[in-house]
Design brief:
Blueprint: E1 2-6, H1 14-30, E2 34-38, H2 41-49, E3 56-59, H3 76-81, E4 86-89, H4 92-95, H5 101-113, E5 117-122, H6 132-145, H7 150-153, E6 157-160, H8 176-193, E7 204-207, H9 215-222, E8 226-229, H10 236-246
Parallel strand pairs: 1-2, 1-8, 2-3, 3-4, 4-5, 5-6, 6-7, 7-8
This protein binds 2-phosphoglycolic acid.
């Protein structure tokens, strides 16, 4: 099981960041869960570069450009150079700020070129009666993976994050029956992009109001490979309970 802790901009002191890392270190020792911390960029540099534990690190986004005269940008090479192994790409909060499918495809290519594992976030704003959201998901996944080689496609992680379920409480998250359906659907899309059995090795995560109260049920009923956790990952007590509930 993989837990990706997306701190977003919710951790605004280095002291708190260090406390969350200390907790994650304890939790990876106590459980067999892989924890990927995804702090804001300045903390990522500090924490990942001095990390000697089994805690993994990722960036919240990557530049659509490579290095050079690009004020404000953080390239894939910069992220890799501090020891991070993962990068979230296409989070709905980035898409809402104008990130396009082309940007995302470009970012995926930069990430894999520097041996970073892209965590591609996909998900619908809402569910319409005609199920157009299913076509949207297919488009989001296909447009991001198609430019990659077969081998590179095998190195990605997919995070299904329905936007309607993000940032709420366990009661608003997806049901485990619906999640199971979505897992099958996403697996089908992946099997078209990576034919044969190989696509089974691409992890599919769920994100959107995963908390200690629902994570076990979601995991049990759906064959999900892990979770992308937002608000419950930046509260010491909630995060500890969530990881222990899953373990
Ligand atoms: P949430 O956020 O757990 O607070 O719903 C998930 C995400 O946006 O990645």
């Amino acid at each position: 099981m993989l837990i990706v802790a997306n701190w977003k901009a919710a951790v605004e002191s280095l002291d708190k960041a260090k406390k969350l890392l200390a907790l994650a270190k304890r939790l990876v020792k106590q459980t067999r869960i892989t924890i990927v911390l995804v702090p804001p960029a300045p903390y990522l540099g500090l924490l990942a570069s001095s990390n000697k534990s089994k805690v993994e690190f990722g960036a919240q986004d990557v530049s659509v450009t490579t290095g050079g005269a690009q004020t404000g940008e953080v390239s894939a090479q910069i992220i890799a150079s501090v020891g991070a192994r993962y990068v979230i790409i296409g989070h709905s909060e980035r898409r809402a700020r104008g990130e396009t499918l082309e940007d995302i495809a470009q970012k995926m290519q930069h990430a894999v070129a520097h041996d970073l594992i892209p965590i591609l976030c996909v998900g619908e704003q809402e569910r319409d009666e005609n199920a157009a959201y299913l076509a949207l998901l297919r488009q989001q996944i296909t447009s991001a993976l198609e430019p990659l080689t077969q081998k590179e496609r095998m190195s990605v992680v997919i995070a299904y994050e329905p936007i309607w379920a993000i940032g709420k409480t366990a009661a608003d998250a997806i049901t485990s029956a619906d999640l199971q359906e979505m897992m099958l659907y996403i697996r089908k899309i992946l099997s078209d992009l990576v034919p044969g059995r190989a696509n089974a090795r691409i992890p599919i995560l769920y994100g959107g109001s995963a908390e200690a109260g629902n994570i076990r049920e979601l995991a049990g009923g759906s064959r999900v490979d892990g979770f992308l956790v937002g608000h419950a990952s930046v509260d010491l007590k909630m995060f500890s309970e969530l990881v222990k509930a899953l373990a």
